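re: ur msg from earlier - yeah i can do the iron/sulfur cluster complex, just paste it... oh wait u already did. ok heres what im feeding in:
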Amino acid sequence: MFTNRVLSGMRPTGSLHLGHYHGVLKNWVRLQHEYECFFFVADWHALTTHYDEPATIGRHVWDMVIDWLAAGVDPAQATLFIQSRVPEHAELHLLLSMIAPLGWLERVPTYKDQQEKLSDKDLATYGFLGYPLLQSADILIYRANRVPVGEDQVPHIEFTREIARRFNHVFGREPGFEQKAEGAVKKLGARRAKLYQQLRTRYLEAGDTQALASARALLLETQNLTLGDRERLFGYIEGGGKVILSEPQALLTGASKMPGLDGQKMSKSYDNTITLREDAESVNRKIRTMPTDPARIKRTDPGDPEKCPVWQLHLVYSDEQRRQWVQQGCRSAGIGCLECKQPVIDAVLEEQKPMRERAGIYVEDPTLVRNIIADGCEKARELAQETLRDVREVMGLNYS
Ligand code: TRP
Ligand code: SF4
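and the outut:
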C-alpha cells in the first residue's frame, strides 16, 4: 500500500524549452532512478483551458513526448503514457465528484487566478472548475505517494489529500470496523500495541503529524500482519476506516528560475525561450542578440554583470573561474559582450547535443514513440483498473 511511486503530468501546450529542462525534466530524469515513475501527457487538462484549439493537441502531444525522451527520460525506467488513453482517470474523476464539495473546488487558488489571467477565454465551465479533481484522480488512481510539482501546484496536492481523506472516511467504513481494528491492535503484541495506541491518541487529539508518521513506520516494520489488518491499522490511526485511496505528498522541485533571453524567467508567454531542440544557428542568433547592460554602449564602456541577463546565464552554465573572468572583464571593459556570450552559446549547444541526437532517432521513426506510449498506457491501465475495482466495490457498484 505504501509504495514509492512517483507520478507527474505535463500539459501538451507547446514545445518545451530549457526552462522546462532545468525546472522539471532534469528532476524527472533523476527521479526515474530512485522511484517507480509514471509520467503522463495531461491532454484532458489541456482541454480544460484550450478547448477552443482542438487541432493543436495531437501535434503537441507527440512533440512533447519526444522532448521528454530527448531530455533523457528513459522508457525502460519510467512509464510514459497519455491521460486520455487511460479512460479510468475519467471514471475515477466522476466517482470522486460525488463527494467533492463545491466550496473546496471554488477555493483552489488557481480557479480564480487563472480565470483572471486568461481573461480572453471563457473559463466559467464545469470542466475548468473540476480540473483539480481530475488531477486528484490522476494521482489517486495510481496510489502514487510522491508528486513532483512546482510551487503553484502545491494547493492541488493538498486538495488531493483532502479528497482522499474524505473518500476513505465516507467509504472506508466496513461493518464492525472499530472492533476489527481493536482486534488487529492486539495482534501487534503488548509493547507495540501500547505504542500504537499512544501515537494514535497523539495524532487524533493533538493533530501531531510526527506521531502519525511514527505510527505508520511502526506498522511498516511490523511483520506477521494480514493485509486486511494492516490496512485497518493504517486507517485506524486517522480515526477513519480502511485506507482505500492513499494520500500523496508533493515533492517540491525547488523551482528553478531558469532565466530567459531577457532576464525574466524563461517562459513561452514572455517570448524569451530557447527550445530544447532549437537548431544551432538559431541559438547562436538568439544569444548574440540578447540585450546586455545598457551602460555598455561602446566596447570601451565598462559594465555591471548584475544589470545584464547574460550574467544570469553564466550563473547557470559557467564555473567559478569563468564567472570571475566575466566579472573582471565586464567591469574593466576587458572583454566585449560577444566574447562574453560565446561560452554561454557553447554551453547551451553542448547541453542540447545529446538531446538533439536522441530526438533525431524518434523523429526519424515515429513508430518508436507510438510503441513506447502504447506500452506505457497498457501498464498504467492495469494499475488504474486495480484501484478502480476497489473504488467501485466500496461505492456499491459491483452488484450483480
Ligand atoms: N495540473 C498540472 C499542471 O498544470 C498538470 C497535471 C495534471 C499534473 N495532472 C497531474 C501534475 C498530476 C502532477 C500530477 O502543470
Ligand atoms: Fe553582460 Fe558580459 Fe557584456 Fe558584461 S560583458 S554586459 S556581463 S554580456
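cool cool. The longest strand covers residues 5-10. ping me if u need the other ligands too
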